[in-house]
Amino acid sequence: MCNGCVKKEYPDRGNTCLENGSYLMNYLGCANCNQRDFVLISNKATEDEDGEEIVTYDHVCKNCDHVVARHEYTFSVVDEYQEYTMLCMLCGKAEDSISVLPDDPRQSAPLF
Q: Coiled-coil ranges per the record (predicted)?
C-alpha cells in the first residue's frame, strides 16, 4: 500500500461501502511511475467465514502494476440488520446497517 498515491489516507466515506470499484477522486497518481491513469483490480478474493462475506482485492496501477491500496469489504446479517463495512487506503473507511424488515424499527417515531 502506498500513501504517495492517494490524496488522503482512509478518507471517511460515511455509509458508502464499495464491494468493487475504485474511488478515483482520492487518487493522485502512481508514485512509482508518475502516471495518472486507470487503477485496475487484481487478486480479488471472496470468502465466506461464519456467515460473513469478505471481499478483498488490490488496487494496482495500470501502467506498472504498483499496488496502490488493499481493499476490504465485509457483509453480514446481524439480528435483523444487514451490516456492511469497507476499509481501504484509496476508497476510505465506511460502515452501514440496513434493516431487513420493511420498516426499520430505528426509524419509527416513539408512540408516547
A: none
